[in-house]
Amino acid sequence: MGYVDADTHAIEDATTWSYFDPGEREFAPEPGASTWMVEDFTVPLGPRVRNEEYLATYPLGATDLTDVPSRLAHMTEMAVDVQVMFSTFWLMHDLSDPVREAAMHRSWNRWMAERSAESDGRLRWLCQIPMRDPQRAREELEFSKAHGAVGVESTGLRYGTSLGAQVFWPYYDMLQDMDMTLAVHVGGSNHSYFRNPQAFYYHHILPVPGAF
Fold first, then answer.
1. CA 31 → CA 28, 91, 152, distances in Å?
2. DSSP string covering the chain
3. Mean pLDDT estimate for the chain
4. What is the pLDDT of residues 129-173, one digit of tens each?
């Protein structure tokens, strides 16, 4: 018997944003040579640009799931049976536009569903749900659970509000009814981080125990 690694990551690449509904393609981030521009912030593009140090540790194609067999082989070397994957992009990027957010969540979830499908259940993942649109949130939960997701990814703050706030409680009922978990990662607003990176502990760590 091996292990379940409950905090691993997938690093998005350009194809992450190719699963939009036709009517929502306008919300896809525009990739440049090495970055995406999303609303008013810039995001490094892909693992080869963003995390060069990963390439010295992990097989090529393992972090962005372009080569799932290499990731599975690496897991086997480490005696890991199952990995649960968080997003990397969504850790620090709440979007101001709820329609764009719902569209991007949809594309991200379908990208992850497709990339993890060939893992024979060894790559499980945490989906994204737009918590300002209950109908779209339920749709994403139902799709994601049917395609290998085991829960929902969040940070301790959503839209500048603690996860302990009552506005989020209906989503927790929804998760409980569907037998899915809420996985709370450290992280918070990208904007607050760049305004005051010295306050990383306050902005990104404390919101998690604070919400609980």
1. 9, 19, 26
2. --EEEEEEEE---GGGG----GGGGGGS-EE-SSEEEETTEEEE-HHHHH-HHHHTTS-TTTTTTSSHHHHHHHHHHTTEEEEEEEESGGGS---S-HHHHHHHHHHHHHHHHHHHGGGTTSEEEEE---TT-HHHHHHHHHHHHHTTEEEEEEESEETTEETTSGGGHHHHHHHHHTT-EEEEES---HHHHHH-GGGHIIIIITHHHHH-
3. 87
4. 999 999 999 999 999 999 999 999 998 888 888 899 999 999 999
Could you tell me the two tokens for 80? 């890991």
Structure tokens that stand for 123 in this block: 């790559």
Q: Which two tokens stand for residue 138?
A: 């339920």
Report which residue type is found at 132.
R
Q: Band of the pLDDT at 91, cuts 50, 70, 90?
A: confident
> Euclidean distance between the first and final Cα of the chain, in Å?
32
> Of 78, 71, 25, 28, nearest to 47 (Cα)?
71
